[in-house]
Amino acid sequence: MTRAAARTDQPVNPDVVLDGQAAAAGRGQWDTERYRAELTGFCYRMLGSAFEAEDAVQDTLVRAWRGMAGFDGRSSLRSWLYRIATNVCLDQLDGRNRRALPMDFGTASPPVQASLGEPLPEYSWVGPIPDDRVLPADGDPADLAVARESIRLAFVAALQHLPPRQRAVLILRDVLRWRATEVAGLLDTTVTSVNSALQRARTTLSDLSLGDTDPSPPVEDAHRELLERYVDTFERYDIDAFVALLHEDAIQSMPPYAIWLYGPEDIGTWMLGPGIGCRDGRLLPLTVNGRPGFATYRRSESGSGHEPFSIHVLDIRGDRVSGITVFLDTETLFPLFGVPLHLAG
Questions:
Q1: Are 157 and 100 in contact (CB under 8 A)?
Q2: Are 79 and 201 in the same domain?
Q3: Residue 53 in contact with residue 40, Cβ under 8 Å?
Q4: 69 and 136 belong to one structural domain
Q5: Which residues pair with 118 in a beta bridge?
Q6: In terms of domains, do 161 and 59 share one?
Q7: In a domain, 105, yes or no
Q8: Closest residue by Cα to residue 294 from 246, 342, 230
Q9: How much is the mean pLDDT over the chain?
Q10: End residue of a domain, out of 174, 206, 238
Q11: Torsion 162-167-173-177 (CA) sign
Q12: Which phi and psi angles does 315 have, rounded to 5°?
């Protein structure tokens, strides 16, 4: 399914080895598993891919296991793991083009074009990630709100505009709230350099249009009725009612294709034209990138049940939908989100 599952030459569970090795060395248990979600979130923000983030975390744990003898305890285990993870990500990003969203490739597309065009390679896109891979199950509501915003697709795509070391500095300082001295130690640099990199990174992000969305939790009651109407109008394929749920500046994009649509009228025209295959679909709710989302299914060609079609990620502003990102790579994404590969009926 994924590159993350392909590392057969490495320990299946390095945490077990770490615990045993550490105990043998008289250093106590190394509870690395408790850091997996936050490390995955850090690597995802750096790399823009759930699969690459999982690879990076696996690589981080293996490097930690192999380098355990060099851990002298002058920093915390958490700081040491972040140091390794940062180096892993910087190595992966060396000389690589940035991931993006379709809006980075040009102007909005006409809604009546005959086809989606040619798909671009997976490494072109910022991909989605399930909330439970990167967000804690509980915690301070204010911290969770910041964490949700920092995995929003538009924010992760904006991060990709930054040089890798600036990206790491901004994530560590503004998202994870590390002190400048801690970041300087992690990157083997000075506090002055960290502060300078942070200022340049903030300036770059401020020049980018990230769009306004509602930062409240996706399951909040204020959104529940809107999401229920989204499902109802989509499954009935009542396009007039569906587009009435959209902001006048709503955007719909469809990775791995470069086309994107602007405004309810064009989105509705597309859905009644090239997108008509979505008719008679079914939706299952998800939480994706800190936002409400859905696994969508369409009627199978045999007429027996429904087959995977896409992952929808919604942006909401006020009482309407302001963005719909439709990820069409069902072969890898449906297993990632743990949703069924077939719906009966």
A1: yes
A2: yes
A3: yes
A4: yes
A5: none
A6: yes
A7: no
A8: 230
A9: 87
A10: 206
A11: positive
A12: -105, 135
Size of the chain in residues: 345
Residues 269 and 155 in one domain: no
Identify the residue whose tokens are 């743990």. Answer: 338
Residue 9 belongs to domain with CATH number = 1.20.140.160
The token duo for 277 is 């295959």
* 232 plus 136 within the same structural domain: no
59 close to 42: Cβ distance less than 8 angstroms: no
Residues 320, 200 share a domain: no
Question: Do the domain assignments include residue 175?
Answer: yes
Give pLDDT, residue 28: 38
Is residue 269 pLDDT above 50, yes or no? yes
Question: Which neighbouring-strand residues pair with 127?
Answer: none
The string of DSSP letters for 147-194 reads: HHHHT-HHHHHHHTTS-HHHHHHHIIIIIS---HHHHHHHHTS-HHHH
Angle at 280 between CA 103 and CA 302, to 5 degrees: 110
113 domain residue, yes or no: no
The residue with tokens 């009228």 is 265
**CATH code, domain carrying 286:** 3.10.450.50
Total Cβ atoms within 10 A of residue 265 = 13
* Backbone CA torsion sign across 70, 73, 74, 78: positive
Under the phi-then-psi rule, with left for phi > 0, alpha for psi from -120 to 50, and beta for the rest, what region is 118?
beta
Mean pLDDT, rounded, for 17-46: 69
Question: Can you give the residue range of the structural domain that contains 255?
Answer: 221-337
Q: From CA 29, how far away is CA 77, in angstroms rounded?
A: 11
- pLDDT confidence tier of residue 270, bands split at 50, 70 and 90: very high
Asked if 290 and 147 count as a contact pair (C-beta separation under 8 A), the reply is yes
Q: 228 near 245, Cβ under 8 Å?
A: no
Same domain, 92 and 189: yes
